[in-house]
Every structure is written in C-alpha cells, then in structure tokens.
Write a structure and sequence with these properties.
eight-stranded mixed β-sheet, five-stranded parallel β-sheet
Length: 679
C-alpha cells in the first residue's frame, strides 16, 4: 500500500471537515468483546458483500454472516473467512486523569520538522536498508529540555529511547514510546519510561520513576481489557496536530493479524472536533466516539482515518496486545518471543520491518544459509520464496558461486578470501541489522564437495544452515537435459550451460555418464549389457573405502567449472553427494526436503517455507507469490522411450532406498516420509 499523495490527503481533509461541521453522529457504543483475529487475516476492503452501505447504519447491505475464502491463504484446508460484522468494539470506560497528569506538559508544543530520508537508503529496498538510526542526543542538546516534558525529542533521546515511525513522523504526530516490537513480534522492547525499578539492585532512576507512574496509570485500561501486562506488545501515546488528517488506510505488516488494536482517547479538548472513522470500506466507515477514557478496539485491517479539526493536539493511547497462547505457538515454531529492556538513551537501528540494538551490530554471522542443491530440484523456487520474507535479504547474485567458479585463487590469506566471499552478501550494509538474514542458492555445491567444503570451513567457520533439495532423479535428469540443450536464455546463461550436449541424444548423454562412473570404479554392481544391478555386490560395495575413493576420483575428473553439461545421473545419486557433507558438518546444520512436497496438496509451498523459517529461527510468514520459479515448458525427453525409463528405474531404485535410509538414520527424519522414495 503506497503513500497517499498530498493532494488526495488535502481532498480527504476538506471532506472530513465538512462531516465535522455537519455533526456526523457517532456510532452507538457496543461492547462486542475482542475483535476475532481470524477477521484480520486479510484487509476487509477486497472482500465481497461489503461494498454497499446503508446510509444510516453504515453497515453492509449483504449477509453479514456470509463467508469467503482467503485467496492468499496457501493452506486449502483453512477455514473460510467471515465477513466482519463490525469493526469497532467499545470495551469500556476508564478514568485517564493520571495519564493526563503525566503528559500534559509540552503537549501543544509543535512537532519537530522531519527531514527527508536520504535517497541512498533505497539502494537495496526499504526492507533491507535503514529507515533511521536513533539514539542519545548530544550533551549540549540534553541541557535544553525539561525532564518532565515527555513529548520533547531531546528528553526522549536522552532518558527514553527514540523510535522512528515514518508515516506518523511525516504527519507531524508526536509520540511517547513505552513498549514496541518489530513487525514480526519477535522481540518486545520495553522502553525506560515503562520500566519499573529493580528492587534488588538499585534505587529508582528518573526513567524508572516515570515507568512506575505509567504502569499504575495504564493498569486500569488493562483491567478493562482483561489482559496481563505480558500480553502487551506495543504501547504509545500519540499526539495528532490540529488541522491534520491521517488519510484512509488499513494497517499492514505481519503483526496486524496477531494483535488486538486498542485506542483510548486521553487528551481531547473537544471531541466534536475529532473525526475518527472505521469501517470495512471507505464508504462504510462509522464515526467513533473519541471522548476521553473510551476504551475501544478496532479492526485495523479495516479502513480507517482520523482528522483533528480542533485547535490543539489530540492525544490517544494506542495499545496492541496478543492472545496469551501466542507465545507458546512461537516457541513451538523455534522462534520464541524475546523481551528486552532498553537502556535510557540506547541507540537502535531500524528497517521498515525490523528493530535491532546498535550494541548488537555485527553479531550475526553471514551468510545465514546456503542452498547446496541439487540442481533442477526446486532450488531457485525455494530461494525466491524465502527471500519474500521481509527479514531475508537477497545476495548480490542468487548463485554466488563464491566457493567454486568465483573463488579467487590470487588471494593469499583467509581474511582476504573471506572478505571476497562476504562481498556477495552485502556484509557491510547488513552489519547494523542482526535480525536480517541472507544467503544464496548455488546448486553446483552439493556435487562439487571436494572444492567447496574446505573453502566453506575456511571462510564461513560459523557454518550457515545447509539446505538440500532433492527430486525424483529421473525427472531431475530430464529437466537437466532439457535446460542444457535449450537455446532459450541470455548469452551468459547459454555459456554457463555449455555446448557439450547440444548435438547428443538423451540416451548418449546418460550412457556416457554411466561409462565415466564405470571407468572410475564407482559402479562395479552395474551390468552394462543387461542394465541391471547386482544387489549383493551393491550391498557389499556401498559405504566402503573403495566407493569413497571411486567417488572422489569421479568428482575430481568429471566435474568441470566452465560448463553445466555434466553428470546427469550422478547428480541424482543423493546418498553419495550428501555423505561427504554429513561427514564434514554437524547434522543439525542440515535441512533436507523434497521438491515434491512443494506441489503436494497435503503440504505445498507454505509448508516447505515454514519448515525452512523454523530451521533459520525466523518468524513464519505467508508467502505472497507461490508460483514456480525458473520453470520451463519442454517436451519430455523420455516420451516414447519406455525401455530407457525402465533401466533408469532399475539403476536408481537401490540408490533411492539407500538415500532414504541415510536421511532417517543420520538426520532422524520421519521414516514415513523417506521410505520407498519415488517408487
């Protein structure tokens, strides 16, 4: 949702002033209880049956109990979404005098002028670059504020922590930040002005004294909502300047669907001059009573807007809370919610969707993950799905090849080689933002173990998450052959694929790979004439020293760096490829999945991405674009070649069984998922 143009805001402001002057009535106060969170999974505006509104009730003419399915929900078994029956719930009334007493000083002081963001911050997109770095003011500035004026920016920077809210700052909204969290509710930050004194360690500070008073003043609101302090994930006081309109919008971000948004008017000199409206569409917005102390919850996935038509600032307390079960759910997803008390004047760094402490800069080793392969097994798709997460930044190249093709032998030291590799991962720009992750997908790594593994250990000693995707090896070989022999693609792509297979049939290519493996001593159990496996010899040979030596001989002599036209069968022998990796790194560093899971009705793309996010320790998110990536239409090279397919099945059957056993025994994966692979 892009920014509303200034001329549109001006137009909406004039319309709002007209409604204020016409004394648009407020909707009745009705306590519906908490807004059902399943109503907030998507914005209300695109949903059917809410387009037309009765001019008196401002409610839908349609069946309010109608249901719709969320078109963006990747899980076909999810329950249908109800059309929201209401967007505002009056949860109660409280006395806000104690809050007013804390914040009256300076409330009508003008907001500071917001400087335009440096255009260089847009280099890699809003989600990968800073919105602002905030922190302690200089000593000279610190002397110029009243410590009891909580609206003063210098005071906030010195005794609290200054947090950027780009839209609010642009509208001139002043704020007193108490509790805040990142977009994914991964870390909840309690700011000094909401912290209480530690009874065991120290006497109350100025900040903790404010915190004690704030706690006591806000507690009645929590009592009305019947929630605990621990459920609150955001809490701030916002002062809207006179003559300002926040245009019609709905809130965005992952946090919205998990939280209840509550407003409490605190300082409103004349409620008749404030127009706060909310509804499923712009045409259906109702006016909300903004009398001080009115505790109301709103569906912030619905359209809403506010205009201050008075002569003074209008102050609301804005609070977001989660269900108590939310924390257990996140812990089960390997992404437990963290709680952090920020120190007075502490510096934080922000992107559009993340918040980090400056003191933790450079604490995240890069890269966070490497997709090793296998080639033509969905590695591009997985990478593109993963990097739709706002906290996952794309590398400079999807396939960096920094550990094989682009390895720089001229560099003399480990430090130089590591620096060369880290350039591919925006290492310098990523330093202030340890919440963010980055990595690449270079599917040649899996097979090319003898070159890649020692280089990985040297340059990435922390060892990133190593992701391996596999696929029916016969279908993988068909896709490999079709890609390499295709004339479609850029000159760079065509060069990388190589020319070796262009004038060869699929049979010739496969037979050559078999011949190479036989010559290297890798397939003593394969009979070239009958095209069958000697099962007894296979069981004796696999996992032997002789097999290790033959495999290394094959990889060292048959895996070039200047072409992709090699190893159509060996690339599908997953046990041999994975064994070298499993021997070299701790098993908990690996995530192995099947391409087939992405297209299955039971699992699908969302399931695969959720599993990946869990392994990375990242909050889950709904993948916006689940279309296949790097897929191509081609004539099946096996069409009409049943005999060829049959001997390939005989060749791969014991290899697949071996691989399945390895995954179950060495990684502890579910036997039901890895038995009888691709039969």
């Amino acid at each position: 949702m892009g920014a509303t143009p200034p001329e549109e805001i001006a137009k909406q402001h004039l319309a709002a002033v007209t409604l204020i002057e016409s004394q648009m009535p407020c909707a009745p106060r009705i306590n519906h209880g908490p807004v059902p969170l399943h109503w907030k999974r998507t914005p209300t505006c695109p949903r059917p049956k809410v387009e037309a509104c009765d001019k008196h009730s401002h409610r839908s003419d349609g069946d309010v109990n109608g249901v719709v399915h969320d078109p963006n929900d990747a899980n076909p078994n999810s329950p249908p979404l109800k059309v929201p029956e209401w967007c505002i719930s009056s949860r109660g009334q409280v006395d806000v005098t104690s809050i007013v007493n804390l914040i009256t000083e300076g409330v009508n002081d003008p907001a500071p002028i917001v400087k335009k963001k440096n255009e260089t911050a847009k280099k890699n997109g809003d989600d990968a670059k800073p919105v602002k770095v905030t922190g302690k003011s200089s000593k000279s500035t610190a002397k110029q504020f009243s410590p009891t004026n909580l609206w003063n920016e210098a005071n906030a920077s010195h005794n609290n922590v200054k947090i950027t809210r780009p839209s609010h700052d642009a509208w001139g909204i002043k704020k007193i930040m108490l509790v805040f969290c990142d977009d994914f509710l991964h870390t909840i930050y309690t700011l000094p002005w909401y912290q209480t004194a530690d009874p065991d360690n120290k006497a109350p500070t100025k900040s903790s004294t404010v915190g004690e008073k704030m706690h006591k003043a806000i507690q009645p609101i929590l009592d009305v909502l019947q929630i605990q302090q621990s459920q609150m994930v955001r809490c701030l006081l916002a002062a809207l300047p006179p003559g300002v309109t926040i245009p019609v919008h709905h809130d965005t971000g992952e946090w919205v669907k998990y939280t209840h948004r509550v407003h409490v008017p605190i300082i409103v000199p004349d409620p008749t001059k404030v127009l706060f409206r909310c509804g499923p569409t712009e045409q259906c917005m109702e006016r909300v009573d903004c009398s001080p102390g009115h505790v109301f919850e709103m569906n912030n996935q619905a359209k809403h807007a506010v205009t201050n038509g008075g002569k003074d600032f209008r102050v609301h307390l804005i609070l977001d809370y989660v269900e108590s079960s939310f924390f257990e759910t996140r812990a089960a997803q390997n992404c437990p919610v963290k709680r952090v008390n920020l120190a007075p004047g502490e510096i934080i760094t922000q992107t559009r969707r993340s918040i980090d402490r400056a003191s933790e800069a450079e604490s995240r080793d890069l890269p966070s993950f490497l997709i090793l392969g296998a080639q033509k097994a969905g590695t591009t798709s997985l990478y593109e799905y993963m990097t739709q997460h706002p906290w996952v930044v794309k590398a400079k190249r999807r396939e960096t090849h920094c550990l094989d093709w682009r390895w720089n032998d001229a560099l003399q030291s480990t430090e130089e080689r590591r620096a060369h590799c880290l350039e591919f991962y925006h290492a310098k720009a990523m330093r202030p933002y340890p919440s963010l992750r980055t990595g690449d997908s270079t599917p040649s790594y899996l097979l090319d173990y003898y070159r890649v593994i020692p280089r990985l250990k040297e340059c990435f000693a922390h060892v990133p998450l190593l992701i391996i995707l596999v696929r029916d090896p016969i279908k993988r070989a068909a896709s490999h052959y079709a890609m390499v022999t295709s004339s479609d693609g850029s000159p760079e792509q065509l060069k990388a694929r190589g020319m070796e297979w262009r004038d060869k049939s699929l049979e010739d290519v496969l037979e050559q790979d078999i011949k190479n493996m036989k010559e290297d001593g890798l397939l003593p159990y394969w009979d070239m004439e009958s095209k069958t496996v000697d099962k007894e010899m296979f069981d004796t040979f696999i996992n032997s020293r002789e097999e290790d030596e033959a495999w290394e001989r094959y990889v060292r002599t048959r895996v070039p760096l200047n072409t992709g036209s090699y190893s159509p069968l060996a690339r599908g022998m997953y046990a041999l490829q994975c064994r070298q990796w499993f021997r070299s790194f701790s098993k908990d560093k690996f995530l192995v999945m099947k391409l087939e899971d992405m297209s299955s009705q039971e699992r699908g793309v969302q399931w695969v991405v959720n599993k990946t996010m869990k392994s990375l320790g990242l909050p889950q998110f709904e993948v916006p674009d689940v279309d296949k990536k790097n897929a191509r239409e081609y004539v099946d090279p096996f069409e009409g070649k049943e005999e060829l397919k049959e001997w390939l099945k005989r060749f791969f059957s014991p290899q697949n069984q071996r691989f399945g056993r390895m995954i179950v025994e060495e990684l502890g994966y579910d036997e039901n998922d890895w038995t009888d692979l691709w039969t």
